[in-house]
Amino acid sequence: MSEFERGREKLRAVVDTNVFVAGIFWRGSARECLVRFARREFEAVVSEAILREFAETAWALKTEENLPQNPQPWLNWMSSRATIMAPVELDEPVCSDRDDEKFIECALAARAGYIVSRDRHLLQLEKPFGISVVDDREFLAIVKRQKTHKRLS
């Protein structure tokens, strides 16, 4: 597929827990990723296991840090708006942190082009199975480029 053809498709990405939870509680590039998803500038893909981790992590952080933001509306929103996929099972470990495999398995099932993460174990993989692992700032730049390209075509 040419870059032009890819530019016409909606980006599909798996958002890691650290980006999603940071977007709930703090302003910045992680929150901007969630805003771009809300504007339907990319398709977010999750699995049931990822949604569970989002909830567990968000509530634990809220409690531990005594944060005022209620994560439940965000969790409900993600559950209702993201595409939920049954993950593929990997035959062999790919990531040094086995707990991160769920993001790769979901991305493979969805044929996602990106995993958006701040996790060093995922970021060091760079491009497992052709899936680009990028941080939230880099992903925003990709989304902006795609949006500009669509306007020009």
Sum this structure up briefly.
This protein has 153 residues and is α/β, with parallel strands linked by helices. Helices cover 55% and strands 12% of the residues. The protein has helices at 3-8, 17-25, 29-38, 48-65, 72-81, 101-110, 120-123, 136-152, and strands at residues 11-15, 42-46, 83-84, 114-116, 132-134.
Characterize the structure shown.
The protein has 153 residues and is an alpha/beta fold. The chain has a single domain (3-152), classed as Rossmann fold (3-Layer(aba) Sandwich), CATH 3.40.50.1010. 55% of the residues lie in helices and 12% in strands. The protein has helices at residues 3-8, 17-25, 29-38, 48-65, 72-81, 101-110, 120-123, 136-152, and strands spanning 11-15, 42-46, 83-84, 114-116, 132-134. A five-stranded parallel beta sheet has the order 3-2-1-4-5, with helices on both faces. Helix 7 links the parallel strand 4 and strand 5. Helix 2 (17-25) crosses helix 4. It is globular, with a radius of gyration of 15 Å. The two termini are 17 Å apart.
Labels describing this entry:
5 strands; 153 residues; single chain; alpha/beta; 5-stranded parallel sheet
List the helices and strands and how they pair.
Layout lengths: L2 H6 L2 E5 L1 H9 L3 H10 L3 E5 L1 H18 L6 H10 L1 E2 L16 H10 L3 E3 L3 H4 L8 E3 L1 H17 L1
Parallel strand pairs: 1-2, 1-4, 2-3, 4-5
Helix pairs in contact: 2-3, 2-4, 3-8, 4-5
